Amino acid sequence: MIRNAATRRGFTLIELVTTVAIVAILASSALPLARIAAQRTKEQDLRVALRELRGAIDRYKQAADDHLIEKKSDASGYPPDLDVLVSGVENIKQPDKPKIYFLRRLPRDPLAPEDVKPADTWNKRSYDSPPEDPREGKDVFDVFSKSDGVGLNGVPYRQW
Fold first, then answer.
1. Can you tell me whether residue 158 is helix, strand or coil?
2. Would residue 43 be called left, alpha or beta, if left means φ above 0 and alpha means ψ between -120 and 50 degrees?
3. Alpha-carbon distance 138 to 74, whole Å?
4. 9-51, pLDDT tens digit by residue?
């Protein structure tokens, strides 16, 4: 009888069920962590995109204030749309009028659907709209996310 027990190989049903239960518990605890990590990555991408866009808008305004680019008398000096930051504007102080570019490419909102053009993924605020009721207008003073979600820090994405 001892020899028969020693020659048996394999796992009992209880051992297999216990192992599967432990693996299931570990997998179920890792899934929320993976979701949070994915959300954290998108939020970091959103911060970078907003910083890049707002920096380009500020550089455009500075170029307009320095009279490097043409500015109409009734204009605020902010870009008329986001695409002009990529397509560039003529430097009127140079004789050959080279273009000044403010962005290499227009970043997209990482929280927006993939089938939308990058310029259409952002809500835009014009210079003459109040901060509590932002709306589009003749220029782009600021950008913010169209997402209705709330960040991990508890602040809605629209307020970033």
1. helix
2. alpha
3. 11
4. 778 889 889 999 999 888 887 778 888 888 999 999 999 999 9
Answer whether 123's CB lies under 8 Å from 158's CB: yes
- What secondary structure does DSSP assign to 24-59, as a single string? HHHHHHHHHHHHHHHHHHHHHHHHHHHHHHHHHHHH
| Token pair 């570990």 in the structure block, residue | 26
Q: How far is 133 from 147, CA to CA, in rounded Å?
A: 16
Cβ-based neighbour number of residue 19 at 10 Å: 11
Please answer whether residues 144 and 125 qualify as being in contact, where contact means their C-beta atoms are separated by less than 8 angstroms: yes
Distance between CA atoms of 4 and 101, rounded to whole angstroms?
A: 82
